[in-house]
């Protein structure tokens, strides 16, 4: 069976539409249509497929074929590496709700959603991020990856290439196939996650430069960062200053 990219292109041409016209009719961006037709994104959301099928005027059978082409193979892995959540977590529920709202709403946007939880050491940034990630597990069917960048944990912070290597390994890339330079490894990561819906938690980041190579380019994956600074160099990142928290365990 033809892949999603080929099918979408064939249906669009048969309908006599340009990418721009299809984007307008389906209320998607031109970039979103282009990444689907080039195969850089293979598994869009069902709502995206429904919008495309309607815009193309597909029959029920044709729409079914389009959806079938976008089903992820059962053998592809789901990554899970979050630390354990607290048994109970209370206080600052408003910030937690805002944070999870931004992350769970990522599918309504095109491009990477980044949230930065910032604050001084010891106020509970990691606990907040882990709680948010656990509560959103169902929203990210391809899994969640946690990486401690060790900016203030003693010893040397994790450098970008080491961080990329760990994330690529978590996503199932054999060690022998991981590039030895940051630029190529970053490109490999972007290609790998372009058609996945993944939550990447980058804990204790030192700077925007440390995490920039780890950011997905397109698709529905999101990045949750904790840092002692606000990392204002991350364009478009949503900021969540964190000053204190209250927890209770049983």
From TrEMBL:
Classification via InterPro entries: Cro/C1-type_HTH, Lambda_DNA-bd_dom_sf, NB-ARC, P-loop_NTPase
Record-level Gene Ontology MF annotations: ADP binding; DNA binding
Entry superkingdom: Bacteria
One Pfam short name: HTH_31
Coiled-coil ranges (or none): none
UniProt domain HTH cro/C1-type: residue ranges: 8-63
Official protein name in the record: Transcriptional regulator with XRE-family HTH domain
């Amino acid at each position: 069976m033809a892949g999603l990219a080929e099918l979408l292109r064939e249906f669009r041409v048969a309908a006599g539409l340009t990418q721009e016209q299809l984007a307008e009719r389906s209320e998607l961006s031109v970039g979103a249509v282009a990444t689907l037709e080039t195969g850089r994104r293979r598994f869009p959301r069902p709502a995206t497929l429904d919008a495309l099928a309607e815009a193309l005027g597909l029959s029920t059978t044709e729409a079914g074929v389009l959806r079938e082409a976008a089903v992820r193979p059962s053998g592809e892995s789901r990554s899970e590496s979050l630390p354990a959540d607290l048994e109970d977590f209370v206080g600052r529920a408003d910030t937690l709700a805002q944070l999870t709202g931004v992350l769970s709403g990522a599918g309504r946007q095109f491009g990477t959603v980044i949230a930065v939880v910032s604050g001084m050491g010891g106020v509970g940034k990691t606990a907040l991020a882990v709680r948010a990630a656990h509560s959103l597990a169902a929203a990210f069917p391809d899994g969640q990856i946690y990486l401690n960048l060790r900016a203030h944990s003693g010893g040397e912070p994790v450098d970008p290439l080491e961080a990329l290597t760990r994330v690529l390994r978590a996503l199932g890339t054999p060690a022998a196939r991981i590039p030895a330079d940051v630029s190529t490894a970053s490109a490999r990561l972007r290609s790998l996650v372009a058609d996945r819906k993944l939550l990447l938690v980058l804990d204790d980041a030192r700077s925007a430069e440390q995490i920039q190579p780890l950011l997905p380019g397109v698709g529905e994956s999101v990045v949750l960062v904790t840092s002692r600074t606000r990392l204002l160099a991350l364009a478009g990142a949503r900021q969540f200053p964190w000053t204190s928290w209250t927890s209770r365990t049983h």
